[in-house]
Write a structure and sequence with these properties.
With about 425 residues, the protein is of the alpha/beta class. Helices cover about 50% and strands about 20% of the residues. It contains 15 helices and 15 strands. The chain has a five-stranded parallel beta sheet, with helices on both faces. The radius of gyration is 28 Å and the shape is flat. The N and C termini lie far apart (about 60 Å).
C-alpha cells in the first residue's frame, strides 16, 4: 500500500527548502521535493500517494501551467505558486480545478501556502452535508468544488432523510442549497432549520444557506431561524471556499474553548463546574424517567503525605494515575475531578451489584498497580449511594459514605442507602 505524502515542485531551491521546513512543523508525513517537470514526472511514478502538492506555475523545462495539468491528470490536490498575478491566470487556474493559488511575494504568502496545504490534507476528515433537490442546477457544481478541497460530501435530496441521518451523527457543516431544496411536502426550510437547532446550536453545527440573488431575502430570514451564514449561488469558487473554511474553523474554535472550559487540565476528566451543570441535567433526566442512579465519591488515601514525602510532582502523577484507572473503569458514566485528590461519578444503574463490583475493581487496580507505576503504594476510599431527591443530596450521601470508609480503615467501599 502506497504511503501518503506531500509534494513540493519549485525551481527555486530556497523557496522549496522554506516550504518544506514550514510544512515539517505541521506534519509527520513524508515531504518530497523537486525542481523541474522531469523530476516531478519521475516522483509521480513512485510508490508514494501524493495527497497535496505545492507547485510552481512556471518550470524551466515545461510550458507555463504544464505541471498543473500533469497534477490535475493524476487527481492530486494542488496549490499553485506563482511570482506574478493577473485575473486571466486566476480564472485559468480555477478552470483546472486547483485548490488555491498564492503569489509568492512575501514570508506571509509562504506561510499561507503551507497552512493551506496542511488544511487541505485535513479536509479529508471533514464532512459536509449538502441538502438540495433533484431539480437543482447548482448541486453538482457545489459538491464538485468541495471535493476539490478534499471534503467528504454527502448529498441529500429529501428533508426527512437528512433529519433522520442527523439523529445518528452530524457533519462539520450543512449547506442548504436553494430555498426550494428544503421545500418538500413535509416541511419548509425554516422548519428544517428550527428542527436542527432543537438538537444543535449554531456553535455546534454551522449551517450555510445558498441562495440566488432573487432569494437573498429568504437567506436573511433563514439566518433569523438559526442559519449561520449565506452566500449567493452565483458565487466564485474562492467565495465558497472562504465561507466554508471560516464557518468550520469558528465551530472548531468554539469546541476547543468548550473543551477547555469543562475539562480538568491535569487529568482530562470533566471539572467540578461541568459535573454540576451537566450532572444536574442528567440527574433530572433519570429522575423524570424513574430510572435508578448512583453517585460515587472517591478519594486518594493519605494524599497529603504523598505530597509531603515525594513532592508535588509525584502528587500530580498520583492524581493522573488514579484518574486514568477511574476513567477506564467507569468509561460509560459522567466522571469528574472534584478538586485535589477527590473524584465524583454519576450514572444510571440497572444492577447495584455491577456498580459495586466496578468500585471494587477500581480499588484493587489502584492498590495493585501503583507501586510499579508510581514507585509508591496508593489506596483509594470510596463512598456510594443510590438515593437522594436532588443531586446535591445524593452527593452529600456519597460523601457521608466516603467519610465512613475513611473512618473504617480506608482502602474500602462503603454504601449509604
Amino acid at each position: 500500500m502506497s504511503q501518503d505524502a506531500f509534494l513540493i515542485i519549485d525551481d527555486q531551491k530556497s523557496i522549496t527548502l522554506l516550504l518544506k521546513d514550514q510544512l515539517q512543523k505541521l506534519t509527520s508525513l513524508p515531504i518530497l521535493t523537486c525542481h523541474s517537470l522531469a523530476e516531478a514526472r519521475k516522483l509521480l511514478g513512485s510508490d508514494y500517494h501524493f495527497v497535496v502538492c505545492l507547485s510552481d506555475l512556471h518550470l524551466p523545462d515545461g510550458e507555463p501551467g504544464e505541471a498543473i495539468e500533469l497534477l490535475h491528470s493524476r487527481h492530486i490536490t494542488t496549490v499553485v505558486l506563482t511570482a506574478t498575478y493577473n485575473d486571466k491566470t486566476r480564472q485559468e487556474m480555477f478552470k483546472q480545478k486547483v485548490a488555491d493559488y498564492v503569489v509568492k511575494d512575501s514570508p506571509s504568502a509562504i506561510h499561507y501556502a503551507v497552512q493551506t496545504a496542511f488544511r487541505l490534507y485535513q479536509n479529508a476528515r471533514r464532512h459536509i452535508w449538502l441538502v438540495t433537490s433533484w431539480k437543482s442546477h447548482y448541486s453538482s457544481k457545489l459538491s464538485g468544488l468541495l471535493r476539490v478541497h478534499r471534503y467528504q460530501v454527502t448529498v441529500f435530496e429529501n428533508n426527512n432523510e437528512f433529519l433522520s441521518a442527523l439523529r445518528e451523527k452530524h457533519p462539520d457543516l450543512v449547506l442548504l442549497e436553494g430555498s426550494e431544496a428544503t421545500c418538500d411536502q413535509s416541511s419548509t426550510p425554516y422548519e428544517v432549520v428550527s428542527r436542527v437547532r432543537q438538537s444543535y446550536t449554531q456553535n455546534q453545527l454551522p449551517i450555510l444557506a445558498c441562495e440566488t440573488s432573487a432569494n437573498i431575502a429568504t437567506a436573511i430570514k433563514l439566518m433569523k431561524y438559526g442559519v449561520n451564514d449565506f452566500f449567493n449561488l452565483e458565487f466564485t469558487a474562492e467565495e465558497l471556499y472562504v465561507r466554508v473554511k471560516q464557518n468550520i474553523e469558528q465551530t472548531a474554535a468554539y469546541k476547543e474553548i468548550e473543551h477547555i472550559s469543562r475539562t480538568d487540565a491535569l487529568t482530562g476528566l470533566f471539572n467540578r463546574g461541568y459535573f454540576f451543570s451537566h450532572g444536574q441535567w442528567l440527574f433530572d433526566q433519570l429522575k423524570n424517567h424513574q430510572k435508578y442512579f448512583f453517585v460515587l465519591m472517591a478519594d486518594i488515601d493519605h494524599f497529603k503525605s504523598v505530597n509531603d514525602t515525594y513532592g508535588h510532582q509525584k502528587g500530580d502523577e498520583a492524581i493522573q494515575f488514579v484518574s486514568q484507572h477511574l476513567q477506564d473503569t467507569f468509561n460509560h458514566f459522567l466522571a469528574a475531578r472534584f478538586g485535589g485528590e477527590e473524584f465524583c461519578i454519576l450514572g444510571e444503574v440497572n444492577d447495584a451489584s455491577e456498580i459495586e463490583s466496578l468500585s471494587e475493581t477500581l480499588r484493587h487496580r489502584i492498590e495493585q498497580h501503583s507501586p510499579d507505576a508510581l514507585g509508591l503504594p496508593l489506596t483509594l476510599s470510596q463512598g456510594l449511594t443510590y438515593s437522594g431527591v436532588s443531586l446535591d443530596e445524593a452527593i452529600a450521601k456519597a460523601d457521608k459514605a466516603l467519610y465512613r470508609a475513611k473512618e473504617s480503615g480506608r482502602n474500602r467501599v462503603e454504601v449509604e442507602f
